[in-house]
Amino acid sequence: MLTVKKIIPYIVLYLLVHTTFSFSNILPSGKCAGTVIFDRWDGCVFHSADVMYVSEKVKEDLRPYAGQTVLIDVKQVYQPFNPGRGRIDEFQYLGPAPKNDDGRIPDGIELVSSADLDGDGTIVAIIDIKNTGDNSVELFIYDLAFTLLTNRSEKGLQPADGLSFALMAQQNFESRWQGKFVSCAWSIGKENALPHSFFVKPGETRCIRIHFELPPGEYDFFCGYGERHVQERLSSNLTAFDIGEDGKGEIVAVENRDSSGRVETE
User: Fold this and answer.
1) Where are the domains of the chain?
2) In sequence order, what are the residues at sequence separation of 6 or more whose Cβ sits closer than 8 angstroms to the Cβ of residue 226?
3) Where are the beta strands (DSSP E) in the chain?
4) Which of 54, 202, 214, 246 has the fewest Cβ atoms within 10 Å of its own Cβ atom?
């Protein structure tokens, strides 16, 4: 039987993770646009201004739209702590997300995630920002963020009811080049710290390499770009990798996963 004394450490750990990893409040009920993402463990998240879990009981209603940015009307949200992650328990699908006309999601910009192994065998996650358009575009680094999902068993008080959860969510590079937490860390190197904004020329690719320190386990990585108040959002493909007991990484090919990160099912 759990006593107050026993459960306090779990509450403290939860608050540390969620006040450090996410500075935003929960997605309220109402209309919201985001990208539908199914991870390698078949968990579903809704990538909007934040990363919201989608309940196992309703995720199948979003499966036809995996990899797409859609508009939904959220009817019920479960949030054990505020601030903190939340779970969508009920929603209504409204259609494709409307396109913004404010220019904050520039035409021609693509986000591609991948992974590599460093010289010592540790994992490096890669974000490629590609400009396939005809004009130079300015990107704002606060709007670029990555998320790392895992299926580690120590969920604590996470609201996710599937096999996976976000170990790191919406990590951006504004005024920093690293993040250090209770059991993990990331870094792009101080010498690679990014400016508040930068331009990507036509045909140019801007590459960001993220070095991780992670416990042994399975992981799924993706990134996104979009300002909090806009409906439209860019999300990358997913990239899977494992970390062994020796700290070495292994890049994993997920069966039937296409370039959008969607796992095709019969």
Assistant:
1) 4-252
2) 49, 104, 105, 143, 232, 233, 234
3) 30-38, 44-47, 51-54, 69-78, 87-96, 109-117, 123-131, 137-140, 144-150, 165-172, 178-180, 185-187, 197-200, 205-213, 217-225, 234-235, 239-243, 249-252
4) 246
CA distance 258 to 62: 17
17-75 pLDDT, tens per residue? 443 333 345 445 788 889 999 999 999 999 987 899 999 999 999 999 999 999 999 99
Q: Which of 87, 167, 68 has its CA nearest to residue 125?
A: 167
The secondary structure of 121-132 as a DSSP string is: S-EEEEEEEEE-
Class of the domain covering 4-252:
mainly beta
